[in-house]
Amino acid sequence: MDGSVWVGLAGTLVGTTIGGGLSIWASVVAQNRQTKATRDLRVEEKTEASANEAITQLYVIKQRARDFPQEHRGLDAWQKELSRLAAEMEPTVLRLRDDALRERVEEVLGYMDMVYELTDYPAHGGSLMLPSEICRYGLDCLGATVRNQPLPAPSQAMLKAREIDAFERERMAIAREEADR
Fold first, then answer.
1. How much is the pLDDT for 24?
2. Radius of gyration (Cα) for the chain, nearest Å?
3. Residue 57: CB partners within 8 Å, gap ≥ 6?
4. For residue 148, is it within any domain?
5. Strand, helix or coil for residue 109
6. What is the pLDDT of residue 16?
7. Tell me, what's the pLDDT at 38?
8. Which residues of the chain have a pLDDT value below 50?
9. What does the alpha-carbon distance between residue 57 and residue 96 come to, in Å, rounded to a whole number?
10. Is residue 20 part of a domain?
11. Cβ(65)–Cβ(131) below 8 Å
């Protein structure tokens, strides 16, 4: 055989090997991309499902917060019910992937443990509707996340709740200092 035939065969063999290797590499890359896309889609679906579940639960809490008892003796049961509903929502909140969203919803749920204080300080902006308005802010945050929008700024209700919380913490610190004397 002539040398040019050997060179032609070698070139063909090298070209086939390189082409086959590139084809296998491209298949592996495409499969990895598809696997990642599938995994990302599952994560997105789970995240949206958690947010939707949180919306449903927080809406129930909001509705219960609006049912302020007419008689003073029903106040303790009402506050315990709101605290129980907030505690039941905690596992759902833990599944929220966005840290800022999770912190805001946890803050909203934390205020459900101090409903009496939120409704009993009219001088600091407290009102009977404040717990419900706080829940509305939590719903706004969850809705923004589901719609892929930025989280809203704290509402007036949240600012009032923070003010009342700070006042209550200060009052408790003073009470502890006086008890220590």
1. 85
2. 30
3. 85, 88, 89, 92
4. yes
5. helix
6. 84
7. 79
8. none
9. 14
10. no
11. yes
Taking the alpha carbons at both ends of the chain, their separation in whole angstroms is: 110
The token pair that represents 168 in the structure block? 């209550």
Whether the Cβ atoms of residue 113 and residue 83 lie closer than 8 Å to each other: yes
Nearest one of 119, 115, 153, 136 to 58, comparing CA atoms: 136
Residue written as token pair 């009032």: 160
Residue type present at position 114: M
Tell me, what's the pLDDT at 121? 64
Grouping H, G, I as helix, E, B as strand and the rest as coil, residue 156 is: helix
For residue 32, is it within any domain? no
Number of domains composing the chain: 1
The letter for the amino acid at 181 is R
In 3D, which of 28, 47, 34, 1 has the Cα closest to residue 146? 47
DSSP 54-66: HHHHHHHHHHHHH
Instruction: Tell whether 146 is covered by a domain.
Output: yes
The C-alpha atoms of residue 106 and residue 98 are separated, in whole angstroms, by 12
Q: Which residue type, as a one-letter code, is found at position 37? A: A
Residue 78, helix vs strand vs coil: helix
Distance between CA atoms of residues 107 and 93, nearest Å = 11
Q: Which domain holds residue 103?
A: 47-180
